[in-house]
Amino acid sequence: MTTAGNRQLLLARHPEGRIRDEDFRLVDAPLAPLADGQVQVRTIYLSIDPTMRVWLHPTDNYLPMIQPGEVFRGIGIGVVEATRHPGFAVGALVQGLFGCQQRVLSDGSDLLALPDIAPLPVTAHFSLLGHIGMTAYCGLVKVGAAKAGETLLVSGAAGAVGALVGQIGRILGCRVVGVAGGTEKCRYLTEVLGFDAAVDYRAADFDAALAAACPKGIDVYFDNVGGRTLELALGLMNDFGRIVCCGMISTYDDYDVPGPRNLVQVVLKRLRMQGFVILDPEHDPKEAYAHLLQWAGEGRLQHRAHVVDGLERVPDAINMLLDGRNQGKLMVRLSEEPTVA
Questions:
Q1: Which of 89, 229, 248, 329 stands 20 to 30 A from 40 (CA)?
Q2: 100 by DSSP, 3-state: which?
Q3: Cβ atoms of 153 and 221 closer than 8 Å
């Protein structure tokens, strides 16, 4: 059996502030021969997620710190191109924490076999039916406990998670208000995804516009950004409201950004403010998967992918995500999808 090569993206140093190309190093590394019980996977797509910037901090978080010289962490979709494992056949699509590299060897314990979801595209395993969809569903339905008739505010609403959160909110019967950057994204939320209102956080009158879009206050706030938007939302929350803390992307390049000055609202309004990570064991992916697949089949959920090519694009793609320059679920393509016979 021929041993394939393997291009890898290594962490060179922990970034200070905005990510730079010099924070990483591309290397060509040999791939060890396949051993009994192992699978060789060729990476097709790498998911680009806000949490990748968190992984770059020089400290442990919900996963161990990545050390300089190690392969940068990343979730991948790939195809089995060689196997000595009875549970995985050549040609099978799998997903796992591959790292940012062209190929990975695995004993199979960390791989998830992906079902055929045609006519949905392979990229839907990341956007709709993967960790993005699971985060949106579990965060809103389980953590936020959103109910019909409530006002739901979603920040980062044009992003992969936020767009699904808003659509699920509409399905549940909520009045949905989205916050996004720019008039084009706001139009996308209302005209394409069916949000009841959208507010441009870049506008000079953002504070007043957000209040006007939520005349009856906010019952559930799904927070993807933290910072100023969180501060404004706290002031608009109704008594006994729920704040779902999914991300705080506005602070990821700089942890010294001042926090909300009005956290006392949590006490005065008896709010519940809860962070969560989809890896938490209490979340049921089977329930989320079933609902998401059903709603997509009924035409009630829309999703889109933004694909850039090349392993060297990973650092810029993370910055693209933090800047809000992506249009849909952002991923980096390392190789072509397998052809269907």
A1: 329
A2: coil
A3: yes
